[in-house]
Amino acid sequence: MKRTMISATLLAVVLTAGAAMAGEHPGKEYIEKNGYNGPATCEECHKGIAKKFLDTVHWKHASKVPNVHGKNIDPKKEYGMKNRIYSFCNGNDIVNRLKEIPANEVGKSKLAGCNTCHPGNQQCEVGNCEVGVENSIDCLICHSSNYDYSKRKPYKNDKGQVVTGQDRSKEAAMAVGRPTVKNCMTCHESAGGGVLIKRGFAFNKENDVHAAKGMVCVDCHKGKDHKIPTGLDPNNWANDGVLVACPDCHTEAPHKSAVYNTHTAKIACQTCHIPHSGGAIAKDFTVWDKQANKFWEPSTLKRDVQATRPVYAWYNGKVLDSPNYIGPDASANRKDKASKIYPFKIYHGKAFFNKETGDLLSMDFAPPMATGDARAGVASAAKILGMKNPEKVAKDATTGWQTVYFANSHLVTKRNALTCDSCHSDNGILNFANLGYSKKEIEKLTNTELYFNKSMEIQKSKEKED
Amino acid sequence: MKKALSLVAVLAIVAVSLFGFSRTAQADEIKFVGVITKIELAGKDAKTATVTMKDNADAKLIAITINDDLTLDKLKDHRIVEGDEIRCKYEVVDGKNVSKLFRKTAGC
Predict the structure, then answer these.
(1) Rg of the Cα trace of chain A?
(2) Helix, strand or coil, per DSSP, at residue B91
(3) I need a surface site. Which of A76, A320, B23, B52 has the fewest CB within 10 A?
């Protein structure tokens, strides 16, 4: 018996190692023979993985956010796209749960909602952790390189619920593996109202040096038990409690040049290596724009990938959340040892504010999408959230702008990185006065003597490359 | 002689203008939003596809040629399917409407 067990274990190890060496996910023979039965099939080898997944941001769309503070932030509660009210989305999973949008002026309706990207089937609320809910996890949407996305469309089931399908075919399961860039970007490029609207970056060889090297998202965002490391983006709060940063791979002294390396103590890598941003720069949720298909969308100023310049500010990971501003808090400055200068995409959103409290109000997109009536959306959201007198809240609501700082973390370039004179020349891109430097210091920082020789060296090196 | 030279100069200007204009017209990008009515794609290894779209503005059908790998991939794995609304930019090249931007209008 003992010998049989040892032999079986050895065989399993050999088979697994063989498959792994060939770059293939093991277990395909099992799937070929038994078919794919959702997470239960994955659990044959990855015991307990589905339940653990229920405790991740990808499932909960929320987490505790100890680095964020503001009058409406309760440190004991979790925040994320499940429940946040801010001016980029202005809705969230709760008020904009996948639903049927009422008919527009030509009698057409559609199924839409913020939680369409949630890797469940939308039959339960986002973050629902009831017994058995793990069976609804769509493992293959992230792990299959042969997923048929036509099966992932929303539809009405026989109970009249609006749900999403999944591709649980054997063909999709046989192509299981590490998530590819496509797996991640299928959801992450479409956030906030369309392709490359919210994050505004394309992770491809034309736009990012890591992609050009053949890297994929999970090379940096390498998760353990589906807890995915991220940075502390002032805009995207929810996280799995695991961080990733450039020095994890590149160290704090990544350059051959000692002069460049002296900068890393106070200048974030992104500042020089991500000189552009993209995506929406402003939206007006109080005035909706009628589209050619007769549905309405919030008026949005869209910019293409690499089309905008960031704003530079001190940041130490601490974020202030207020009705008019979300971004680095006042503790970030040049004297603070944890602060560095970072680039940010600045976004401005116009929305409705509660006349009584001054708080930003949320919006259910269903009414304005059909009719353009933004206040009807505010009333509906207020009702969903259990506010008193929702119609009055909407009628009395004032309008105003909120400024949001988005982290600039992708579109990384080596060749087109900023060089000395980009910042140190008279019309350099860093506003040293705004960053807290005195007139005397600025004169010193922008003296040609400071950067001429190094800039010449870089120029010659580039000419040699060309 | 002077008259003949003037005529040549005028003709040259006209020719240059016409040539320049036709080049510009050819390189002009045309934008529209429409709904996909038909996708013609020859298998998983296809290097090109033809997508017929109904322009939302005037309901006219336009055949768009897709050559870029990212959009082809989205057509192959059905991230883009018939019925999807698309924001499209195209150029007329050798009589074909070649896509320069092809993105679904919808997001979450």
Answers:
(1) 25
(2) strand
(3) A76
User: Which residues of chain A register pLDDT less than 50?
Assistant: 1-2, 4-22
Give pLDDT, residue B3: 61
Q: Is the pLDDT of residue B101 over 80?
A: yes
- Mean confidence (pLDDT) of chain B: 82
A-B Cβ pairs (cutoff 8 Å, strict): 58
Predicted-complex ipTM score: 0.79
CA distance, residue B45 to nearest chain A CA (Å): 14
Is A150 in CB contact (< 8 Å) with chain B?
A: yes
Domain that holds residue A263: 62-89+192-360+397-418
Same domain flag for A199 and A234: yes
Compute the distance between CA of residue A396 and CA of residue A378 in angstroms, rounded to an integer. Answer: 11
Which of A114, A146, A292 is opposite residue B33, by nearest beta carbon?
A292
pLDDT band at residue B11 using 50, 70 and 90 as cut-offs = low
A284 lies in some domain = yes
* Interface contact A191-B81, CB threshold 8 A: no
Minimum distance, in Å, between the CA of residue A461 and any CA atom of chain B: 34
Nearest to A194 among B35, B77, B106 (CB): B106
Element containing residue B31 per DSSP (H, E): strand B29-41
Domain range list for chain B:
31-104
Please report whether residue A8 resides in a domain. Answer: no
Q: Which two tokens stand for residue A459?
A: 């120029």
For chain A, the 3-state helix, strand and coil shares in percent, each to the nearest 5, are 30, 15, 50
pLDDT at B24 over 80: no
